[in-house]
Amino acid sequence: MSGPEKSAMRATGRCLCGAVAYQVHGPLRDVVNCHCRQCRRTHGHMAAYTSVRRADLHMTETRGLKWYQSSDAARRGFCQECGASLFWDSLDRDSIAVAAGSIDEPTGLKTIRHIFVADKGDYYEIDDGLERLPKGHGAS
Predict the structure, then answer these.
(1) Is residue 137 part of a domain?
(2) Is there a contact between 31 and 115 (Cβ–Cβ < 8 Å)?
(3) Residue 73's domain spans which residues?
(4) What string of DSSP letters covers 96-137?
(5) 134 lies in a domain?
């Protein structure tokens, strides 16, 4: 056996309307909050992302999935039916970032840090005591 049948399902998730759905068959990284301008514009606020090895993400519904090339280095996946922002895909990594809010509960995840805090919006404060990095980080 290979693929999803061989490894145990770790999590499931979907967009608001169900036109994009997925299963995760491997470990998820804990959540990182990104405050960069692109994430704030895409999500309407900062973005909370986990990450999974690309080979461990299995799409079960893709009729609404649309990709937008948001920079030279990455693309963003969203549902073209309900507008949910779901994925951030760096073209040079073997992992893909998954919007934490799209994962069905219980997730078993915790938020561990904030990145791109130098770009955060002027309308909120970050005061939860978690690690704060002015720019991004090398972890996938």
Answers:
(1) no
(2) no
(3) 3-121
(4) EEEEGGGBPSP----EEEEE-GGG--TT----S--EE-SS--
(5) no
Gap between the Cα atoms of 85 and 140, Å rounded: 19
d(CA 74, CA 90): 4
Query: What is the DSSP pairing of strand 21-24 with strand 47-53?
Result: unpaired
Strand partners, 114: 33, 132
Q: Is residue 129 in some structural domain? A: no
Number of domains present in the structure of the chain: 1
The 3-state DSSP class for residue 39 equals helix
CATH number, domain with residue 112: 2.170.150.70
Q: Is position 31 within any domain?
A: yes
**What pTM was estimated for this model as a whole?**
0.90
What span, in angstroms and rounded, lies between the C-alpha atoms of 133 and 85? 23
Q: What pLDDT, in 10s, does the model give residues 59-113?
A: 999 999 999 999 999 999 999 999 999 999 998 999 999 999 999 999 999 999 9
Assess whether the previous peptide bond of 106 is cis (omega < 30° from 0): yes
Identity of residue 34: C
